[in-house]
Design goal:
Layout lengths: L2 H29 L9 H19 L17 H43 L12 H34 L1 H11 L5 H29 L6 E3 L1 H14 L5 E3 L6 E3 L1 H18 L4 E6 L3 E7 L21 H6 L7 H11 L3 E6 L5 E8 L4
Parallel strand pairs: 2-4
Antiparallel strand pairs: 1-3, 4-5, 5-7, 6-7
Length: 362
């Protein structure tokens, strides 16, 4: 841009300020002829600064300040205060908007963090609402969760298929074992085959049970479900005592809840005696405890037994049957229902398996 064009634009800026001031001065002179209409030096300086700022914004950073130095753009005090107040109000509004946006982002991030902390791997679908950044983050987490669930299902299908296919060779080995003439060798091989069949069936059951993690949560009559399960045990010749009553619905998956309780009761019957089920209600949760009078579990192994294929040391030494998958499956199902499963040795001897589930809030 040429020097002449810069000067013309600068002249336009100052003529704008000058014409505006002259109009206000003529009005002031008509209303109060006794007052002077000449602006003071401060008005001159402020007008020159404003003109320079507009010129820099219009012509760019390369404009020379000397272009505007000889120009006088008069500006009275009232207009100066109007401009200052307008700028101040604009900055305050901008600060309020930025503060509200920051608080909205903070609330959305806190909501996501709270959901992840409460539910962990078994969290429900996150709500995709709020600021755009929070919506994008929630959508990304939901997509990762869905892809992970699809991979888990594929792995479980492969596990179940391999375990199912092992049944055929095990059956052939059992038939060939019957043709052995050495009785002691035949009995030893039959015990090994029985353990292998148990592991195969446990693998198939593990895959099927973990597939049921996707069962949706619903209102469940826990008293009715517990009564039905106890009738099944009585018909099988095992009387299980129940202490307490729930008296209100619970959020759970009916099939998964029944399998968890059956698993805990079967473990108690296998390793102990005097098996009882205790039910109590806290402020926001239901606690179902399966207790026995068996040997319990060593404190160092209390968490290790929840890992797949891990069995308690006492059970391994005593030669108790089992695959080491029961507690691992039970805890996974409990957490899929937004609950938890913990073990604790009783003071009077035996073990307590405590299942905690959320109640339905009326």
């Amino acid at each position: 841009m040429t020097k002449k064009s810069r000067a013309s634009i600068s002249s336009f800026i100052c003529s704008y300020f000058g014409s505006f001031h002259r109009a206000r001065a003529s009005v002031a002179f008509a209303g109060a002829p006794s007052k002077s209409t000449q602006p003071d030096r401060r008005s001159h300086g402020l007008a020159l600064t404003a003109a320079r700022a507009l010129a820099v914004a219009t012509l760019g950073q390369n404009v020379h300040a000397a272009t505007l130095s000889p120009l006088a753009c008069p500006l009275d005090d009232s207009l100066r205060w109007v401009l200052c107040v307008s700028v101040l109000v604009g900055l305050m509004l901008l600060a309020v908007v930025l503060w509200l946006e920051a608080m909205d982002h903070r609330a959305g991030a806190a909501r996501l963090a709270r959901t992840l902390e409460q539910h962990g791997a078994g969290m429900p679908e996150l709500a995709e609402s709020g600021p755009r950044a929070i919506v994008r983050l929630a959508r990304a987490i939901n997509n990762v969760r869905r892809r992970q669930a699809e991979r888990d299902v594929a792995h479980l299908d492969v596990q179940a298929a391999y375990a199912h296919d092992l049944r055929t060779p095990l059956t052939r080995m059992g038939l060939r074992c019957e043709m052995l003439e050495d009785a002691s060798l035949r009995e030893a091989m039959e015990r090994d085959l029985a353990q292998m069949r148990e592991l195969v069936e446990a693998s198939v059951a593990s895959a099927r049970l973990q597939r049921s993690v996707a069962e949706p949560l619903q209102r469940v009559d826990a008293d009715g479900l517990l009564g039905s399960l106890m009738r099944d045990y009585r018909e099988a010749g095992r009387a299980i005592a129940v202490d307490g009553r729930i008296g209100q619905p619970v959020m759970a998956c009916p099939l998964a809840l029944r399998r968890v309780l059956a698993n805990l009761i079967d473990n108690a019957l296998r390793y102990g005696s005097d098996v009882r089920v205790s039910a109590r209600v806290d402020a926001t949760s239901l606690v179902l405890a399966v207790v026995d009078s068996g040997p319990g579990i060593r404190p160092a192994q209390m968490e290790a037994v929840f890992a797949p294929w891990v069995r308690a040391e006492q059970a391994s030494v005593e030669g108790k049957a089992g695959s080491g998958l029961g507690l691992a499956i039970a805890r996974r199902l409990a957490r899929s229902m937004q609950g938890d499963l913990q073990l604790q040795n009783r003071r009077c001897g035996g073990l307590e398996a405590r299942l905690t589930l959320p109640l339905v809030v009326a």
